[in-house]
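Blinded run. Sample ID left blank on purpose so nobody reads anything into the name before looking at the predicted structure. Input follows.
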Amino acid sequence: MPLCLLCLFLMCLAVLLLVPHSRKASAGQRARDASAGLSRYDYELIFRPAESTLAVTMTLDYRNDTGHVLQSLCVRLWANAFSDEASSPAAL
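Blinded prediction complete.
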């Protein structure tokens, strides 16, 4: 009789441990769910090695959570910081 109780206990434990894992979303899906409704940046990059050029197009979908109309929006483009020695973090 004690062996049957032990088997029953182990089967219940196995079910409890396995069920949450089968319902758990993938890490990618959890990240997509967490980022729903947030601002998004999309980049299109075109590298032309023969011409030594890189063309970049950035699309920003900004979500205004302030409840007010914004008159302006500041976007810090860190790559531009290196375009002038006065503003370059590398020159400090």
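Unblinding after everyone has recorded impressions. Strands lie at 40-48, 53-61.
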